[in-house]
Amino acid sequence: METHREVVPTGVRRAVTSRVEDDDTLRIEWPGPDDGGIVLRHAETGEEHPGVELAGLAVGTWTVCKHGTPVVTDDPGFSLDGLVAYAATPRRKEVRAVRSSQGILTVVVREVEPYVEVTRVGPEDGVIAVEGIIAYGEPVAGERPAGFTAVARKGPQVTGAGTASGRHFSGTVPIGPMAEGQTRQRVFWDLFAEVGGVRLELAARLDDVEGKKARVRFPAQRAGQVRVRPYFTDTDSLAVACTIEGENT
Amino acid sequence: MKVSFLILNAYGMGGTIRATFDLATELSDRHEVEVISVFQHADRPFLPLGPKVRLRSLVDLRAGAKVRWPYRKRAERLSQEPSALIHPEERAYTSFTAWSDDVLRRELGRLRTDVLVTTRAGLNIMAARYARRKVITIGQEHLHFEAHKPGIFEEIRQWYPKLDAVVTLTEADERDYRRMLERTGTEVFTIGNGLAGGPRPRSKQENRIILAAGRLVPVKGYDRLLKAFARVAEVRPDWRLRIYGEGRVSDKLVKLAVKLRLHNNVTFMGPTGDIEGELAKASIHAVSSRFEGFGMTIIEAFACGVPVVSFDCPRGPREIITPGHDGLLVPPDDVDAFAEGLLRMIDNEEERRRMAANALKTAREYDISMIADRWEDAFSELVS
């Protein structure tokens, strides 16, 4: 496997740690004393933002600079647990520290909506079971029933059952009713949780894996002639493909 | 001193090209260095090469490439004929033609350099046969001794004694070549590949990620890794395995992962241009190979502060990893033992952190400047 060589000049001070904290400040730790001077530069617009307070930053990728040169970091920028903890706070914007393949520290700002981060998918025993945690939304007090539905694109919907407890969500939806009466060769279903009257998407985004569609493969179940397989969509949302098995499949 | 490296194709990507470029770049601060590529199919090399290294090619495969007068007709004719000088069992045999034979023989006959380092069996044999006597010839072996098929091995046995030296990647190979070259005057040195590129991102040992990387081909043993990891995931379901790379058994492996119901724990990450950045996100590097000629990824992992669990397969891993110090070696082919090794690393966090710190120190021994020093020592020994 080939590696992408860093292009930064040698002798440049390298950050040991570079993380976005829960309060949207950028924490950079250096091998020696910190002399400040951090400026973020928007990759597309060139807009500059002084300091490490990141709240209110425009969407996009920001290059972190110090005294005019990009900051080089030895820190990948996040931990998976850290991303989960960060998503415990309701937010409309997500800010992440990301080390580019050239070793440069960038800050990536995205708009987010509350959703359920999928942590476990169990396609077995005639149901699709999902576990997850509420990300960027309000947790529920105590344990209470939650909705869980599968909605066919241009088609009907199948209701399952779920539970929400604090940040945690779990739910199951039966595959029998999804497959029943299917006439089209292939039908795609989107999955939604409903917690406290709010419809939440199910997706897996609290990591650095891009394009899960091609990277994660779930086992299939069969309901009559229909093969039922969960999958991640192009936007890393969890969906289900129901395919009638025949000579052409 | 002038040092020339002869390589099959400097414009592609691969371990030999990278190792050669890194070494040539490092040596170019000390000597006049050139890389001669037998073939050229692209305008520029894919991998980085130092600005002081001269790069040239012998056979231009690019569309519209012109052959110099008076060779044009001859080139046209001979390009259609198979190589007669390269043994059909040389793994790159199909790349060679009667025309490349012709060009290569002429080049070697007139090449004025102090040291010629050739980088694969076919080229080592060509250097032994056709290089000028005044040139010190060093045949480098990136493959291990037993990897050569019988036919080409006979040629190796016949021609390597004409080389001044053979350089192997492992001491195990050095022993084999020494036995073969006894009383021939050909020296044998072990010099591993060096790690170039300066400082690297570093793992904080905070993600429950096991990383494996390499082409998805049977020799890498990913089927066994998946089986071992299935046992790990049973007891430590919050740990994940990331496999980087692509290759012909990709479909098979995905199916196996589904069969083992690892869909919540295994991600096939595809190829990456930044393996070091990815290593820095992981806590353990798994090497499940059936065979590992050297084990460059082990050193890369070490350099990012990631300890390694590896099968004790031939030949590289045991020469790099000190078990219990910077990694673990488990008996080859023993899937249970591999799972146990991974679990030991997972469950003993303190030990893992200690191994991670030691791994960083081990990696320093493979710094390209140290490796270049060893090449220089070999050069001086051969000159005197």
From TrEMBL, chain B:
<protein>
    <recommendedName>
        <fullName>Glycosyl transferase family 1 domain-containing protein</fullName>
    </recommendedName>
</protein>
<feature type="domain" description="Glycosyl transferase family 1">
    <location>
        <begin position="203"/>
        <end position="361"/>
    </location>
</feature>
<dbReference type="GO" id="GO:0016757">
    <property type="term" value="F:glycosyltransferase activity"/>
</dbReference>
<dbReference type="Pfam" id="PF00534">
    <property type="entry name" value="Glycos_transf_1"/>
</dbReference>
<keyword id="KW-0808">Transferase</keyword>
<dbReference type="InterPro" id="IPR001296">
    <property type="entry name" value="Glyco_trans_1"/>
</dbReference>
